[in-house]
Amino acid sequence: MSITRRNALTLLASLPASFALPWSTAFAEEGGNLVVGLRTSEPRHLNPAVTTVGGVQLVSANIYSALTRFDRDGHPVPDLAKSWDISPDGLTYTFNLVPNVKWHDGQPFSSADVKFSFEQVLLPLHPVGKINFAAIDRIDTPDVNTVVFRLKYPYAPFISLLEVRHATILPKHIYENTDVMQNPANSQPIGTGPFKLAEWSKGSFLRLEKNADYFKPGKPHLDQLVFVIIPDTNTMVAAMEANQIDFAPLGVSFDLVETLKQRLAPKGWVIGTAQYLFRGTGSLIINTGDPILAKREVRQALAMLVQKDAILSTVRKGVGRIAENPISWYVPNAETDTIYKPDLEKAEGLLDAAGFPRGAGGKRFGLSIVVSTGWAEFEPIANLLRDWLGKAGIDLDLQKVDEAAAVDRMFTTRNFQLGLSNPSFGPDPAIMAKGFTTDQIGKGAYTNGMGYSNPTVDKLFAEGVREIDPAARHGIYRKIVDAVMTDVPVIPLYEDDFAYAFRSVFKGLPPGGTHRDSYEDVSSVG
């Protein structure tokens, strides 16, 4: 992909009128506005307690809070909970809440909101709530500033699951005795976070204003935070060149990183790459319920047709690392017993044995692949896959759709054969269960869209969350990895780092490594 000056001007001219933003970036340590370009589909709502869709979380992390948040190194640190204690047996977690916190409508926040959010929203309605919080026996609220979680059994990942991505706290007084999924507050959110929703121009932008009553003294620093919907990479780059946005957290395709460094760095832009804290893994998702793909030999053959090193070098320009399993950051590739190396001859033998010999014209069968336009690297990866599968007599049809449609087709309706996605199973390996256990089939974004079901794997996941000895726990997840990669419901391609760009007049960017971080620490310095 190449972007010329003429292309940039043409793209800018094609932007909607509303993109001529009615605000400008101010330059002061306190105050000012930050305009963020979102290379995702527009959020359908802003309630992160009932979804795992990234576009919702990117915005709402600034509106809502949770008991904890992650620091830049991935360690849980206080948010609504100022401190906590864990009993020696690992069964009781006591959280001391920050006092005098207010919701955006001025109502007081209390332990009742925490109890309500877990019992009435997160457990029954969050796509992975049941699996994340199955260990909870009961929740006690001895006073307005104390919450006590009593667990049925020791649960190793518990403290890592209490941040806003998995455990957003909602206002009880807004949601109680309502249909949570249809509540108007889903699009007109009332949170406790550093910013309040001020304006939502559908199809264009979301404007957030500083929460003057935020419970963290001196934060946030910015007056306004604006998210502009720009799902097209070319348009994003054009907006960057014209300084119409200040930050592109996911808007830089890897083939443009070096070019943009040369062109934009002299104009005060910082372009770089960083590791994704939640450990995203670029993956080829396989629908195991499809008549062709239901045969394990076919899935294994596909794995032998993929050249991961070529994807890493040509599409991602060396950014990231090859992944041989869905949690290669925890179970290293060197410890993975089942690894598929490119081998066309062996792949063809498996396809023959599976009952799919070459027919007329050397063809075996055709497949389709869902390709989200929200990820710049997915289409070139799909083109490579089409070439590689074609050598084995498999036609591959690319079905390009926006990110929301791709997520729906792969993880909810499961109306697909193959798909490219970037699920994240960190920072604790137990989170991998949402993508691979039988009870998570078709439960929504980034759950078990493959339809994969293996009773042995289900049992191992149940053991893994209860094991608190690090070495024994690692051994359990190594068994999980080997079982999954033998069955091949997914072909992991690469550990995902992300590319970003921001104007150097801001400090604190990127705000963290999760893509779901609040901008409370960001300030303008020009």
UniProtKB/TrEMBL annotation:
It is found in: Periplasm. It comes from the Bacteria. Keywords: Signal. Residues 1-28 form the signal peptide. GO terms for cellular component: ATP-binding cassette (ABC) transporter complex; outer membrane-bounded periplasmic space. InterPro entries: Peptide/Ni-bd (IPR030678), SBP_5 (IPR039424), SBP_5_dom (IPR000914), TAT_signal (IPR006311). One of its GO terms (molecular function) is peptide transmembrane transporter activity. Its main location: periplasm. It holds the Pfam family SBP_bac_5. GO terms for biological process: peptide transport. The keyword Signal applies. Residues 76-428 form the Solute-binding protein family domain. The keyword Calcium does not apply. Coiled coil: none annotated. Belongs to the bacterial solute-binding protein 5 family. PANTHER family: D,D-DIPEPTIDE-BINDING PERIPLASMIC PROTEIN DDPA-RELATED, PERIPLASMIC BINDING COMPONENT OF ABC TRANSPORTER. This is Peptide/nickel transport system substrate-binding protein. It comes from Faunimonas pinastri.
